[in-house]
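Today's session is about reading a structure prediction critically. Students often jump straight to the picture, but the first step is always the sequence itself: look for stretches that repeat, for charged clusters, for runs of hydrophobic residues. Only then move on to the predicted structure, which in these notes is written as discrete structure tokens rather than atom positions. Here is the chain we will use throughout the hour.
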Amino acid sequence: MGTPKHSLLKGVDVAVDAAVARLVSLDVVGGRHRISMPIALCTGSMVDVSVWAEPGGTFMVSDDGTAHFEATLAMVSERTFGAVARAKIAPYGAAFDGHSMLFIRVEPGRLHGAIVAMASLIKEVVDEAIARAARAKSASAFDTLYERIGRAFPNAEIQHHAGMIGASTAEYEVDAAVRTERGLLVFDMFTKDPISIAATFTKLSDLSRLDAPPRLVAVT
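Below is the predicted structure for this chain, in token form.
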């Protein structure tokens, strides 16, 4: 005897409700509703949106400082965070308090849209602030590397972002190639990121298998 159709539908409803409950959670602390959204930041944290009622019937929808907190943990400067926050708020109809909080003040009928907008804004601000800080750090590291190479080999032919072909015939770009009287030196930078480490290892290993390999220097 088959299972009644309404029982199957009820089972589906229960499964969907359970899945949604795991995706979105709500905590209420001190009159503030904290909504955990199914949106991941580049740091691995999930997005939280805070909502609380204000006098006069309006609602405040805010990150409650979480975007600033995530960026600070990632060593983003106050200046960079502020610049990104100010650049991103307008399309969302949001505001920035100039220090750590993003917010949208809305009427009850706009609450749903404001919560979704704030969640998207938080992700955009955090991801862009961290990416911008990483680019600035990388540029500074390259400047330092090239300055040191120039001092160490003042009479050498130095090429930045040089193209090379490994023993496997794969093409690579190395951060610096220095041609001296004693031969070719290759410098390549890597970070603590596992992908960066693996990429540099693969690149230099392939170059080391050339019939006449250059001297290889990995820099961090």
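Discussion point for the tutorial: Residues 171 and 182 are 24 Å apart (CA to CA).
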